[in-house]
Design brief:
About 50% of the residues lie in helices and about 10% in strands. It holds the Pfam family GST_N_2.
Length: about 230
Amino acid sequence: MNKPLFATHWPAANPDILQLYSLATPNGQKVSVMLEELGLEYEPHTVNILQDDQFTEEFKQYNPNSKIPAIKDPNGPGGQTVVMMESGAILLYLAEKTGKFIPADPVARNECIQWLFFQMASIGPMFGQFGHFHKFAREACLDPYPLERYSKEARRLLGVLETRLADHDYIMGSDYSIADIATFPWVRILGGYYEGAEQLQLSEFKVVNSWLERCLARPAVQRGLVVCGLD
């Protein structure tokens, strides 16, 4: 009998625990940070997108859209194995599995999910486009319009966060949640890997910067940010 493809490309040393297939990008860091915050036992596997690992038939078993991260949880509801793609869906799954980092109150829970979707629908895609045109496409695209467009939209979204956090320690108030875990890696990358601090005038967003520092100070965040990193 043939082994499943994942057993050959990313073999599990301990298949009885949660398996993470990821890379230390903002989307990947969301899930590794969440797992570290929860203290769940898991086994990380690096999916090197620079070598097109995500397009292999092995990885497409877990995400046919060829995007990291993905997980396999052998201890899902009712003891069933659960395979998950999409970072926001994985965060929600883990929060509901453990009852942590999501409000118990139904109204607050709904609000938290809205801010999670705000990151998925707006923060991630727009910040990613900014990074592409600011850092990677300057020589390939001489037209200033794309960078101007995505710089303006990135600043607008940072303004939304600035307003939300004006009287909140975290996106949901005093409690750190999956809304923060989803969002802060994308804010972090703007002035880090994307080198966009001057272009976006990030120093103007003082409330957002303070919130980011609070998130980054958490020990589980510091551990989670480097999981599945490349040497």
